[in-house]
Amino acid sequence: MINDLNSIDWAALEHAYGPGDDVPGWLCGMVSPDPDTRKEAFSDFYSKALHQGSVYSSTVASLPFLFAMADDPATPDRGAVVALLLNIGREVIDAEEIYAVVCGPDGEDSTIYPDTANLMREHADAFVAYACDPDPRVRGAAIEGLGLFLDDAERAVALLRDHLETESGAAERGLVVRTMADLVLRLPAAAGPARPWFDALADNGSTAPDTRLAALVHRARCAPESVDDRTVPTAILLLREITPSPRLEEDRASTGPCTCEAEPEPDPDVPGHIAAAFDDLERHGRVHAATTPLLTAFHEALGARFDDREALLTEQLRSADPGTRYDAIDMARRLITSWRGDHTRLVRLIGDRLQPHDSYTAAAAAEALGQLAGLAEPAREALAAYVTEHRPDAWASPHRVLRRAHQQAVVALAGLGDERALPSLLVALDTGTDAWRAVPAACHLPHAAAQLTPRLVRRLAEVDHSREQFGFGLTALTRTLSRLGDPAAVPALACTVHTAVRHKQWRTAEPVLKALASFGPRAASALNVVRPLTDADNVGVRTAAASCVWELERRPETVVPLLERLLEHHRNFDAIDLAGRIGPPAAPVLPRLRQILSDQAEENARNESNDATVLNTGNAWTLVHTASALWDIAGDCEADTVVSALLNAWKDNDSTARDVLACLNRMGQAARPALPRIKTTLEQPHRGNDRWSDAVASDLEIERICRSLVTRLRNLPEPTPAGEL
User: Fold this and answer.
1) Distance CA 545, CA 512 (A)
2) pLDDT in the model for residue 723
3) Are the C-beta atoms of residues 149 and 121 closer than 8 Å to each other?
4) From CA 720, how far away is CA 725, in angstroms rounded?
5) Distance of alpha carbon 354 from alpha carbon 390, whole angstroms
6) By C-alpha distance, which of 126, 13, 4, 145 is closest to 67?
7) Beta-ladder partners of 103
């Protein structure tokens, strides 16, 4: 059938990057006798015709040809072809309800996802045949299709039960068990015959331990009520059977390192933080132990059963298998950053993985601890011991894995405010080796400002303002200088903003102005540089300059007139915040703030009446910034409006919680109507915003403010009714 490719007008079809006229070449490449050509062809198809899981007209047109390749025994990589078909089918079935109708490239409504999902179901018998193929690679790729494409639940269960009897490999048997659970989750009618099958496998002592563990885990996935007090202890015993290596008497942890492929040196022309980001993506996608996907699914199934998950992770982190220990580090990090509770034991176990003989695992442990903010405290001494195990110049070690491990440990230790991290940070700033990683870490060591500030200023002077600055280098420098608070940085910051403005580098000037503002009156010497910028061409620079002028001399008669003009710009949050910091003297802008709040309320009402399903997160932030400024300027007379706006913003966008609570904390008794929501937030076991890099620090601050508010509001007398004043 490959000869019929020219019968289709591929140029009239499309993929992620334009017309689909290059798709026939990829399809032909997939059957090339040259392995490199085949590899490139599959890569091109995945990246363009199945880009990030999206399906295009050229993808659908390719399906008959892909099925023909999969059917032909002469196809060189039939397993890869079947896997591609499976991936296309999985994407369309996962998306068919969400994207029942999408806008096509011609502007017309398209039902490409449900149509393609139905097409894959029509080919279910092909996957039944592939699952019986003598080639194990074809079988392995096809088995999952039995759970995805067959709509006859009874037939699918029977086929999977038969396949378990014929498969001898642990991975293949595990795939059959997982597919049975996927089938039950997709077709509830399969639960009846599948449940006793899971029970028999999980509870049968003569079944191989890896298959028993798979059955136990996937039974928990599709039947959460099956999880009881014996489930995790049984899983732990099965894990020990699967990993029968000798265990040390004291902590049952092997000293063998986790091995991995040697990491190539980065391209010297690629900025360090960019290269590191891509390395992290690749590294975090690795699986080091065969049981890791299964245990990941188990943790998801256990959900909020914190004690069970901690017991399981304890076993994983102390496993005799180095790959199991390595992969458990990130699982533990995810639990700690997602769920509140006492994580002391897990944090210490992660700290135990900071072993000098295993830099690869130590780097992962240190990175995880660095993301835990103050919760990493129980591992402080383990971090310090690892950092001091080597000389400070290990930061610039020629051994890449050791260098990364040392740097991650230094960053995590600095995050705890521990000055034992300082010598290595000084090496970074003096040599320039991965200074991009050291600069943000330095902000946690204000007591060492006398040593850090001159070095940071020197790096600031090296910035080339003749071209636009990309990345976060200069912003990180200015933020760190601001956090260190050493006024010795003021002249350099003033010089930097002057040079940036001379070159019209507005994106550079703005963060430098914000850093100057943080010094307050101690930066008054910079007023001659800053004041003219309140008339700059760029609104962001004008706003930052006005804010800086306020912080440096605190004269409302100078700044409020500037503020009135700045608030004419839509959603100028920095200007709104400046109005709040000025407080009552900013009363002339109250009408504008009330108008912004009113306009936002009307927009939200329109969205609700139109059944808008996509939340504009900027709307919630507009409410938070504006309501907070209203309170700080007008006080009690705006209390009802402010509390209502803050609670609405919090309801619509949970990422506003910290800012909402900061304002409520300033409101005192006037915040009492928010007490129910505050109590609910404090009682919830799950951390909010766990997808953000500062999730833990943010949630710890939220918890602290909530506790403070609950205590204060409970002890306050009831507010006096308005009519009795």
Assistant:
1) 10
2) 37
3) yes
4) 7
5) 13
6) 126
7) 109
Output the pLDDT for position 606. 76
Q: Provide CB contacts within 8 A for 89, sequence distance 6+.
A: 117, 120, 145, 148, 149
Q: What is the pLDDT of residue 724?
A: 35
Element (H, E) at 46: none
Conformation bin of residue 303: beta by default, left when phi > 0, alpha when psi is -120 to 50: left
Tell me the residue type at 571.
R
Dist CA 652 CA 368 (whole Å): 30
Q: Which residue has the tokens 């019986």?
A: 132
363, 369, 372, 374: CA torsion to nearest 10: -140
DSSP 110: E
Predicted pLDDT of residue 714: 80
Q: At what angle do helices 449-461 and 422-431 cross, to 10 degrees?
A: 20
Residue 688 vs residues 65, 246, 662, 684, 703: alpha-carbon distances, Å: 47, 41, 16, 9, 11
Q: How many CA atoms lie within 13 A of 412 on its CB side?
A: 34
Nearest to 412 by CA among 485, 351, 337: 351
The 3 state secondary structure assigned to 394-427 is HHHCCCHHHHHHHHHHHHHHHHCCCHHHHHHHHH
**Exposed, middle or buried, 103 (CB in 10 Å: 0-12/13-18/19+)?**
exposed
Q: Show Cβ contacts of residue 515 under 8 Å, excluding neighbours closer than 6 positions.
A: 478, 479, 481, 482, 489, 493
For residues 413 and 420, is the Cβ–Cβ distance under 8 A?
yes
Task: Give pLDDT < 50 ranges for the chain.
Answer: 247-254, 612-615, 690-691, 720-725
CB 302 within 8 A of CB 294: no
List residues bridging with 109 in a β-sheet: 103
Torsion of CA 410, 411, 416, 421, to 10 degrees: 30
pLDDT at 251: 47
Angstrom distance (rounded) from CA 606 to CA 600: 10
How many beta carbons lie within 10 A of that of residue 676, not counting itself?
10
Label residue 390 exposed, middle or buried (CB < 10 Å: 0-12, 13-18, 19+).
middle
Nearest-5° angle of CA 607, CA 613, CA 616? 65
* pLDDT recorded at residue 695: 83
Question: Can you give the pLDDT at residue 252?
Answer: 43
pLDDT at res. 423: 98
What does the block give as tokens for 482?
A: 């601001």
Q: CA–CA separation, 230 vs 242, rounded Å?
A: 18
Please tell me whether residue 102 adopts helix, strand or coil conformation.
strand
DSSP secondary structure of 344-372: HHHHHHHHHT--TT-HHHHHHHHHHHHTS
Residue type at 378 in one-letter notation: P
What amino acid is encoded at 697 in this protein? A
- 379 vs 385: CA distance, rounded Å: 10
